[in-house]
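Figure S4 source data
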Amino acid sequence: MTDHGRYLLFDKLIFGYLAYIALICLAFGRPLSGFVDDLIVNALLAVGIVAVVHLNRRYDNGILRLLRYVYPALFFLYFYRQTGGLIHLFFPGFLDYHLTTFEKSILGINFTLWIDQNLVNVWLNEIITFCYVLYYPMIPTFLFFLFAKKRYDLIASSLVAICITFFISYSLFFLYPIEGPRYFFADQYSSTLPGFVFRPLVEYIMANSAVHGGCMPSSHVAVALVMLIFCLKYYRRIGILMTPIVFGLALGTFYGRFHYVSDVVVGAAIGAIVTALTLKYYRRPENADAAMER
């Protein structure tokens, strides 16, 4: 058996999440017929993981090896879209009113409305939105880079942190459903957010792929921070270059009216804590082999 044909911790986490969502649908999904597609697709994805690992066990093939380490990036997109059907599993509506009331009590303002009245600028908007858009190729680029470097150990350990971060975030989407300021404050904005390239691009992405709901926390910020911390630790120069991009991405989440400040703070906290615990876990000698040390 090759190292690439072993089940790694991130595989097991994905198996666990697939089972968790299936159980949630079976226990709370009503009518159950509305969740049959989720149950079937989740079962097929589990079979797919088994097939990929089994093929890597039998054949030492570069394409199969690449698929073995980048398949989670495809799954994360599906998992995100799947949350759209789970948003109102426990709450019939959204809870933005409670969150915005809390934020105003702390900050004294609703930050997104303050930006609308004081800080809308086409060039600033394009720069910040450019950073925000860079999130979309960030995960596959990160994984492809480590794969090209043959750092299978770092792929395995970083995917553990990314999986846990995503799965916590996706669970909170339906445990605390927030639709975000672009919906909640839609009738209170006095201006649009102008842009030449990146604002129209992100609006197109949002119109065609975003879930109406999944705002708390900002999984964009959470997962981007995971990758930033790994890069700063193992590829410092790249991490330094990434830092202003991730900072701009975080600004873009609430400047672009996609998230509240609270979403960003909670997302950053989840990403930082999960990454710290993951790195601590893999520093232990008895766990080093689980990350496939070179």
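Figure S5 source data
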Amino acid sequence: MGFAQAKGDNKMKRNIETPKDKQNRHKAMEAVAMLDKIRHDFIQPPKNMDYFYDLYEKVYCKRESLHAKSVKVGTMCIQVPYEIIYALDAVPIRLCNGFYTDDEIGSDLAPSKACPLVKATVGQFSSNNFSDKPDFVISPTTCDQKSKSGAIIEDMGYLVYDMEFPRTKESEESREYWRRSVRKFTKELSKNLGKKLKKSKLKKTIQRIGYAQYLYHQLNDLRKEPNPPILGKDIFLVTNAFFFDKIDNWIEATQKLYEECKIRVKNEDKTHKNSPRIVYTGSPPIFPNLKIPLLIEQSDGIIVADETCSANRLFNDMVSIDEWFLYDMVDAVADRYLKGCTCPIFTKNNDRIRRVIDLVKEYKAEGVVYQAFAGCQVYEMEQRSVIEAMEKEGIPILYLESDYSPSHLGQLTTRIEAFIESLKNRRRRR
């Protein structure tokens, strides 16, 4: 065989697409398609949203690493204390996944009727497809499906730590149980990272995350205005970015966005003034699975608040410190994650219903959209009690069941458009 022929054969080999290459390409296409809709299908997004649009393009479309030089702790739920991870010089990265591409892969490893978020998360581990691959995985025993998926991930060779979480939160026993769990987690993570938790470091990270929460609440308060300066689809991007961005960069970008939105309110921009105001609740919108929020706002609704673990719930309560001693701070961090949690995994969940009603009143919302992923049992089971509570309060509510598939968009669009129109008619009758 001559040199020219060998050279040609090598070129052909280099151009052969591997299954992983194909998956990377499909994931990038999925991310690009959603990001393009978010950036270009709406009128006048705030200029400072460009930071977040570019961030998603880097991480999800170009697959650039943000934390190559850091130890990365993957978290399966927002109940894992970020303050502890940062204080041990590691970076928390939430592993909840919104890619349909990974959902399809995960269907070979988890039951086909399982929650798409869980299947997509398992699918990503199976394909080893990460911009920033976690060095450790923390799996709180909150959702049963996530707990079992942790075992599947461990079988793939990852170091997984099960963090025990109580199923009630009202009793002193559950509070103490959770405090002990957080103390144990702190000790184990410290041991695995080879780092000692220092009082000064923990105090600094509590204050830094507290400031991030403060900024988020400041930005959220502007959504109470008669004409909100920012759409819900952009807020979901901002909060999702907190899961993986460098925290100081996120704080700086959110500060600039807040300042711009204040100016928009002052200038009385009329862009969204007449859009029906929606509170969004249920299964978490995780990029790029933002199809329901986009359909709502493409149908002339505006999401002014939410009660989900991918946005509002992440920033609910700040750490309340009585004494700045190390173990007092660890217990205070534990309390912040339990007391403010409104996850439906709790056996009794009146706090969540009360929270949704409060958001409707605070943000002068006209209706609630409740989305549950097909296979997300806790949200599917709880929808009846939430709907009954909303009806008792006279709050219109739309319940939607969906998955990650791009199909059924026509049916979802029809139902959402009809709901938005009913809110407009209700407003006219008043």
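The mean pLDDT is 92. Residues 322 and 328 are 8 Å apart (CA to CA).
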